[in-house]
């Protein structure tokens, strides 16, 4: 292995290059999606498509770009310096979903292809049935926008105007799309220049050796960790409420993890057949979920690179929801990815109980669209976090974006200044955390009042039917719900995934996200922790007594003592 | 003989730095005393008293006192602030509990055991108050005073000594918050009150609330600290009026003002260093563009100064807390003299982020440190030496111990020589610091070839020359007293109070007279405060700015105005300037899109007569006279090289020194690598360039 100092120095340089690319793409991103939601990731890959430099923004992007490099290399045997390739194809190139465009450029040194610089970024619109391209009720891939297999976008430094013309002609927002893709090419060129500087300073051999060593180091660490786990097989399953096109159509995901020595294999054969709605995902994406779950279980500071990819062995059944036959739709990938990550975390923690975590409250958001009094249309979109489950050594975190999702909350004051709705409440839901020795996190409740005559409500959420599971004797978290005019005779309860439900002026909309599951028998939760939760209003007195088994007299006298104590401070 | 002394005191984790300037003679004295953690005021006054005794000066010679403090920073880091209560609009507890909702990027994304920083106010000390103001300032639900009183009583019963009040849209209509403040004053006169409409009157409820909570959490501590210091200074006979505290925004505040807005002091120390850089160096025609590089014991602060002006930002995360107050844009990386090198689980060499800090400190301090640090590596490489103790001779270095630690913990496991291991440690930390410099410069679109690296802090000038070369910067500048540069900045700061008003409106539909009225209101506020603090009207000036955004954007950009807008054209011109600045920052603009005003900003500035700083070093002399001897060093290669040592304080103006050389002075060490040439330029500063 190469010398430790040079390795660490070049590693720091590579991560610095990726950060610079990342800052640059956010700075120069043309569309608000890139700028505001930061839904874009940059990477450096070696000539075979192994990731050698990354800075995690969205973990699943890290799984997609290696497939893109391989697809480009399969499709082209005449790659030259100055080329740039694009693709958004989930099947041919393993892209997350077809709203994301991948851009890669080759890096040559002395005539040899040594690396690729690339990025993957959400696009404002690439055609399809609905504006924005992501269609929650898609029944086939072709309804999810125009599909671009690997295409040469720039040829030896010359932009191909014909390709740009096709992209333009197939987008509702042609300037944004072309502006963003050019920005991605620019960022890749920046990466190329920076790599050339590293080569000039440290030499090509040191760079290539660092590429190789990074994977070796990560693989070694993971295999060493695996070797300390007991051999065996563990299984787990998870569900999402609906596939988006068929009512009451729970989707089941199943994983069987076998660990022998320093090897680990994930078998997803037991998952449902592919579905008619867009909850299918490609095997490469599912592998990305395996990397996430494994890194999270072993050590979150591990680099997500080729070393991890080499360790993970996978089996996917053709025709299943995780290995669908084209053109099965696949644009709402995140819910599926979250579900399989959750199942894997459960099964993995059977090997390493110290990393156990109960189920989480899931992701999702709502959008309210309509027409203002002035006649203008508005689209109010809000991603709402949920809660983590209880963990082997601590309670779940409350009111937070979980696992693969990481979006910010929208400001109430900005929303009310811009949109004809009013937020009536925003608070954590008491008793929503599943009871356990380690309590599940509490999820948020958000209540809106509609201030226009006619509005449409769309929801992409989950866990209205299947709660966050408890673990090791902990109880599940509270179910999520979405209700119009709750507590009135006209109350109407809605599912977790739908579009276009009508609302009228004065309607009150209540979203309650699902809480995290509890971990461990709630009766073993220390009295002081139960008391503390009651004082903070996270758990009701009744729940403390009935679900945690706290003794009523002891609890009430402790509460009185607390009030008395602080009174005398 | 009566003198007029200006005293600047910068409290750090290990040492408290003093700069005393004699106004009449221009003579400057610098010295360090050990910091007295927990009773900082005592340490400061002891240092001052010793100085007065040593020099025969009297307490009433001190006509000006300016102070950079870490009391607020430490209280945040160690969570030792006040027992604080929070009052929110009924139904909206979630604003504080959910916060931003997202997690940090990087490894945290994978971390199942991630924890938020502990809330400074727990739910049990949060009470809801029925009231609701709407976005246009109208009242939907009026304040329920009986319920408010009950909430206050509950908090007081639960032992709070400080209360934060943060209601929705209070920045539009502060009436409800103000009424609650009156109720608190009546009900519990001893309790400190922070209103969100005072502390951060800006749109975006979570950030306003968080800022107010931090302020409330720190206020009692800052208040008693400042009162104690004030009293001790008075006992010494020091002038009463001219006493100032440095704020994060790069301006100083009177003691009274600082105690009310403690949230604005959390970057007090680092801000002073940037002010010194902008005034002393970048303020000159010659070096308008610098990146500051302040390397201390546990961390390194970097900031970019373009055209003599440091960059400000209007809020951000400081020590994990979201605060919405103007501050200098300072980026901190965990790399300093005490940063630890170790072999990780995979057998690779890692440097940082762990630090041995001041206690136990590096191995060579002989205070119980066992893990090799940057300082130990520098000692092994000959950058530092046993013959040159630190901190005015109070700290002797043990080279053998440093060498042993590096051999056993790093060199032997990696199969390297001790020298190679020490060089490796320094190289890795150097690359990390270079990446930090890129974050504030090239990653934001600045070209480092236009910038000097301005090195200060105890360790900055040891590493700067090498780093600047690798970054392709123009050169390195080292101020006369690198170790006390921050303290010097305290003598060069104006009083600066920032005001903000939030009102969302499309700029092309905003009445200029209305905008002017808002600025006038802020100006009147600023003027009244400064006049009350004893400044004369002719000392005052004002800076105006608007925070603008393209409609619907999630962030806004602060655009400076030349003056309070006095006609419709002024707003149109500002909009055009926004397009230009947006293009500079992000690479694109959208002149056809609607631009919205988000915030109106005004800074009221009282120019404090600046100390005139002369070169502290002799104006005559020879290089030969400054020569101290020579030493074998390894900072340029594996082979020992003979390196000449100079006394920095004896170098005459214009002196030229070729590397390899080391310049020594009591507060810092400067390394001039082989192939580099240093020249003494104005004010005793040093410029290092390629030879």
Topology (SSEs and partners):
The complex is a heterodimer of chains A (569) and B (691).
Chain A: H1 4-28, H2 32-37, E1 40-46, E2 51-54, H3 61-75, E3 84-87, E4 100-109, E5 112-122, E6 151-155, E7 158-159, H4 161-169, H5 174-202, H6 204-227, E8 232-240, E9 251-260, E10 263-267, H7 283-298, H8 306-311, E11 312-315, H9 333-351, E12 365-371, E13 377-383, E14 386-387, E15 398-400, H10 412-418, E16 421-428, E17 444-450, E18 454-460, E19 481-484, E20 492-494, E21 497-504, E22 508-512, H11 527-536, H12 541-546, H13 552-567
Parallel strand pairs in A: 10-11
Antiparallel strand pairs in A: 1-2, 1-5, 3-4, 3-6, 4-5, 6-7, 8-9, 9-10, 12-13, 12-18, 14-15, 16-17, 17-22, 18-21, 19-20, 19-22
Helix pairs in contact in A: 1-5, 1-6, 3-7, 4-5, 5-6, 7-9
Chain B: E1 5-11, E2 15-22, E3 28-34, H1 40-55, E4 62-68, H2 71-78, E5 84-89, H3 94-98, E6 126-129, E7 132-133, E8 139-141, H4 145-157, E9 162-166, H5 175-187, E10 192-195, H6 196-199, H7 205-235, E11 243-246, E12 252-254, H8 255-260, H9 268-281, E13 290-295, E14 300-306, E15 309-310, E16 312-313, E17 316-318, E18 321-323, E19 327-328, E20 331-333, E21 339-343, E22 349-355, H10 374-380, H11 399-414, H12 418-440, E23 452-456, H13 457-471, E24 475-478, H14 485-490, E25 495-506, H15 512-532, E26 540-550, E27 557-561, H16 568-586, E28 595-606, H17 623-626, E29 627-633, E30 641-647, E31 656-658, E32 661-665, E33 668-672, E34 676-680, E35 686-690
Parallel strand pairs in B: 1-4, 4-11, 5-6, 5-9, 9-10, 13-23, 23-24, 30-32
Antiparallel strand pairs in B: 1-2, 2-3, 7-8, 11-12, 13-14, 14-15, 14-20, 16-19, 17-18, 21-22, 24-35, 25-28, 26-27, 26-28, 29-30, 31-34, 32-33, 34-35
